[in-house]
Amino acid sequence: MSKASTLDDAFYVLVTGANSGLGLGIGARLIDEFLQTRPQDESLVLIITTRDQRKGDAAIAALGEQLRKVCRKAEKKLPGVSQVLQRRVQLRQERLDLLSLVSVQKLSKKLRDTVPKLDVVICNAGIGGWTGINWLLAFRTILTSWKTSTTWPTFKLSGVGWTTKPQLPPAADGSEREEPPLGEVFCANFFGHYLLGHYLAPLLARRSQTKQALGRLIWTSSLEAYEHTFDIQDIQCLESTEAYESSKRLTDLMAITSVLPATEPHVNKYLDCEQPSEKITKPRIYLSHPGITHTPIMPLILVLDYAWMLVCYISRWLGSQWHVVTVDKGAVAAVWLALAKQSTLDTMEQREGVGKWGSAIDVRGNERVERTEVEGWGWGGEIGERPRKYGRSPYAKTLTPQSKENFVREGEQCWAELEKMRLDWEKRLDEAGVGVSME
User: Fold this and answer.
1) Residue 210, exposed/middle/buried by CB under 10 A (0-12, 13-18, 19+)?
2) Catalytic residue from among 82, 108, 158, 221
3) 276 falls in which pLDDT band (50, 70, 90)?
4) Rounded distance between C-alpha atoms, residue 150 and residue 346, angstroms
5) N or C: which end of the chain has fewer CB within 10 A?
6) In a domain, 114, yes or no
7) Which of 248, 282, 329, 356 is catalytic?
8) What Gene Ontology terms describe what this protein does at the molecular function level (predicted)?
């Protein structure tokens, strides 16, 4: 697909990790909701990333079937409309390995050369990094505090010290180049996406003369982004026994503080919006989570997999608003952030503050988007706000001025450290002759 063969006014969305699970659910829901809510003269270009061609082909086939399903349903109500709907959606697949910084650069360069813009980038791909389950603890906590233990579990066992394969090729004499370790869970869940967002920022930026909504960079967090799991001295989670949870806490810290004055110098550099001669509106970073969904991120044998699905449904029937279970319902928050009017998002943030948006559900299976409390920030950074009754972690604490100050300070430190890390790795890749120029 070249620039000449695409419509500049189409709606371009990139979803990472869309071969299965939540990513595939996001893609399917995007197709459905886009065709239902957007004008007939507006088209969707949905770009998905997978690690290999086989998975990409399977994902495109699944999304193509979803499109045909939507068209067949519409055809019954309005004969002849299916062909119109079919033409409004274009599907495209690309290769991306978030554990390879060169792979991130190559995809970014290709997109910058072949698409006129991006409206939304949904950073969904990631790994759990878990090695198993403490079964004794799992049974004990589930039986004594069912909803709490299945919503904020403490029984998963994590790998420790996992690192990616070397990012730099051997030197000319065959010796290995010196490079710092790069945490595997950290890179898959955050740093790979962090670099991707930086390189794609020019495609997400809006020129002052346009009337388009802000480009949106949607980061995927989790209910398990616990404050106690994160240590800024171990920002890559290399020593952490809860690397997944730590990487999601980092996501929360950086996404929420990305619009605060304390981080503005770092964010402007990251979003490549420092050109004084050009009036550019930088993209916005939004934060979402899918609730509790039944996905392959925790590998279980078939019997246990079905047992876990049943446990999730029971949690919902017991009143948990976060057990959405299926991926199409888990996709609600991310898709809403992608398609909502800019005025809607701005108004809600003006009223409730910057926060974290989650996929929620009621006992009848009706999904919705729900604000989610963040430790050290509350629901929107408002001191002394009245605690909400439903969906609140039993470990949550009332937001105080001190905890909010600590959150903002830690967020600023994270932005400074990640920008330093980004520049360091770009320099190393360039010096090794494998870095990809974005010019």
Assistant:
1) exposed
2) 221
3) very low
4) 33
5) C
6) yes
7) 248
8) 3-beta-hydroxysteroid 3-dehydrogenase (NADP+) activity
Spatial contact of 105 and 68, defined as CB atoms under 8 Å apart: no
Cα–Cα nearest to 187, from 217, 166, 171, 203 = 166
Let me know: does 257 contact 270? Beta carbons within 8 Å.
no
> 416 pLDDT exceeds 50?
yes
For the full predicted model, state whether its pTM sits above 0.90.
yes
pLDDT of residue 1: 39
Domain that holds residue 355: 96-431
| Active-site choice (194, 226, 244, 286) | 244
Is 390 designated active site? Answer: no
How many other C-beta atoms are found inside a 10 Å radius of the C-beta of residue 73?
12
Q: How many domains does the chain have?
A: 1
Q: Is 329 a catalytic residue?
A: no
Is there a domain that residue 32 lies in?
no
Helix axes 101-114, 192-204, angle to 10 degrees: 10
Is residue 23 included in any domain, yes or no? no
pLDDT score recorded for residue 278: 61
CA–CA separation, 110 vs 91, rounded Å?
A: 16
The token pair that represents 35 in the structure block: 């065709």
pLDDT of 210 reads: 53
CA dihedral 195, 297, 238, 406 (to 10 degrees): 70
- SS3 of 78-94: the string is CCCCHHHHHHCEEEEEE
pLDDT at 335 over 90: yes
